[in-house]
Design brief:
alpha/beta; Arc Repressor Mutant, subunit A; D-Maltodextrin-Binding Protein, domain 2; 9 helices; 11 strands
Length: 288
Amino acid sequence: MKNIPTELLRTFITIVDLGGFTLAGALLGRSQPAISLQVKRLEELLDITVFQRNNGLQVTEEGEVLLGFARRMLDINDSAVTRLAKSRISGQVRLGIPNDFEVSFLPRLLSQFGQAHPEVALEVNCDLSVKLLKDFQQGHYDLVLATDSLEETLPINSGDEFYETIVWVTNGHFDWPENQPVPLVVYPIGCRYRQQIISKLNAAGIAWRIAYSSSSLLGIQAAIEAGLGISALARSTVPHGLHSHLQIQESPQLGHVKIVFKHDRGNQTDATKRLYEYLYTGLEQSAS
């Protein structure tokens, strides 16, 4: 009976998810030739072809069958490693996350991480991304998740970077005002969403006014629910009960935001590395 090495399956899945050999190599820390060699080994081991390369990179029918088994096998492998290794990981991790992630899926991921690694102490701080990135450079954090730049098109997720669509957020009962400035509920100056909203409205010649400003997502949420105005957030961070829209009547579309992980790969503890891997996987699934 043949045994399939898990590293070959992981490479195969990563190529499929990222859409290319080069991107998979960058994520896995291997050269493009090394990635190609692993795919060749996998195909020779199973006597199948997993990719059709005549017209771009496409998964074959046999590759699709293998993909389903590969994901389940790696899930079992990773769960076993995490469960058995949890008692050996301890320490403290200083984590910085953007304000708009404080009530989305991150608390659930952090709770799951805490259950899997009870000996790791998490010191979590929420702030504007511009402040988080500055403080990381000054050594105040071990790991930071932050919004880093704005994009008009939606690039492919790769490495430590993810891209999210920015959406308008309302309470579901907002009427676009006629002959009046659009009321905005925003974070303070320095927030990339605030910057994008104002830039897009100005470019479209649409008048606006700041109706409410808060550094807390809970404050932003309460103001929107109360009908004070509308805001914008990354799609995955829109709180339950609010409504997301690519456009609202005359409003422009807001493009996309790049979300990055910042950490020192060459000088980090096992606890920091494990937390990064945990959050990376969770964000990757959320953004897909």
